[in-house]
From TrEMBL:
It is a multi-pass membrane protein. One of its GO terms (biological process) is ceramide biosynthetic process. Coiled coil: none annotated. Residues 33-260 form the TLC domain. This is TLC domain-containing protein.
């Protein structure tokens, strides 16, 4: 319970501290919209670094991938639960401020009509439905399963899953650079390449690796592992992998637009030697 309370204090507190600092520092004096958006990305990046660090410690400490335990696996899982609840609200705040900046809901900067908050909320749920669903599943399904259902087994796999957050800081930085129209910079291109590589390795290829690791432990070839596991385990893995594949597709599409802008086709292959 103490770790849950700590998470409920740390993540919203860090957001408020960052937002107020960006707004009040004499050298910065950012507008609230900019401060909210950057602060939300900062908190997500901090959580990602903490989660991936905890995951690395857990996974490298567990020599036996089924029976070995590490206190961080349970402690950090509980600590991170409030983050997912907070982040749903933080994403809504970002959407709200982007809505204001773009002038949606009113003509020529006019005030929005009463009740437009519901329109913004509907737009937010429509745009971020998959992410909100992902966060809700993490809190309502994955948290109880990892704390109760596992019964202290499989800390190694949980540690590996926590390391999926390695890609999040690159995703957050990319969104900030796009928000401030820095797509032309070298930083954006380097970050885009790192984001693509880290997302592929830590979120997409993670699941085949976990199957391979279990197969190595059980003395099974990779293709035989799904048949040896209970159906609900395979279903859970498929449901976790599905959104990662969708987001990876979006990242690949964005990378194509970044490195091969519309109007300049990809470089043609070198002509074959005669």
């Amino acid at each position: 319970m103490l770790t849950l309370v700590a998470g409920g204090v740390v993540f919203p507190g860090l957001f408020l501290l960052s937002k107020n600092t960006l707004q009040r520092l004499p050298q910065l004096r950012w507008e609230e919209a900019d401060a909210v958006i950057v602060s939300a990305r900062l908190v997500s990046s901090v959580q990602a670094v903490m989660a991936s660090t905890a995951g690395y410690i857990v996974s490298t400490s567990c020599k036996h991938i089924i029976d070995d335990q590490h206190w961080l696996s349970s402690a950090y899982t509980q600590f991170a639960v409030p983050y997912f609840i907070y982040d749903i609200y933080a994403m809504f705040l970002c959407h709200w401020h982007k809505h204001q900046v773009k002038g949606h809901g009113g003509d020529e900067g006019e005030a929005r009509a009463p009740g437009s908050t519901w329109a913004v909320a509907r737009g937010y749920l429509h745009k971020e439905f998959l992410m909100v669903l992902h966060h809700a599943v993490m809190v309502l399904v994955c948290f109880p399963l990892s704390v109760v259902w596992r019964q202290g087994k499989g800390d190694y796999f949980l540690g590996c899953l926590l390391m999926a957050e390695v890609s999040t800081p690159f995703v957050c930085l990319g969104k900030i650079l796009i928000q401030y129209k820095q797509q032309h910079t070298l930083l954006h291109k380097v970050n885009g390449a790192l984001m693509l590589l880290s997302f592929l390795c830590c979120r997409v290829l993670l699941f085949p690796y976990l199957y391979w690791a279990y197969g190595r432990h059980a003395g099974l070839p990779l293709l035989a592992v799904p048949l040896a596991l209970p159906a609900h385990v395979n279903l859970g893995a498929a449901l976790l992998l599905a959104p990662q594949l969708y987001w990876f597709f979006l990242i690949c599409r964005g990378a194509c637009r970044l490195f091969w802008p519309r109007g300049s086709p990809p470089p043609s292959p070198a002509p074959a030697r005669e």
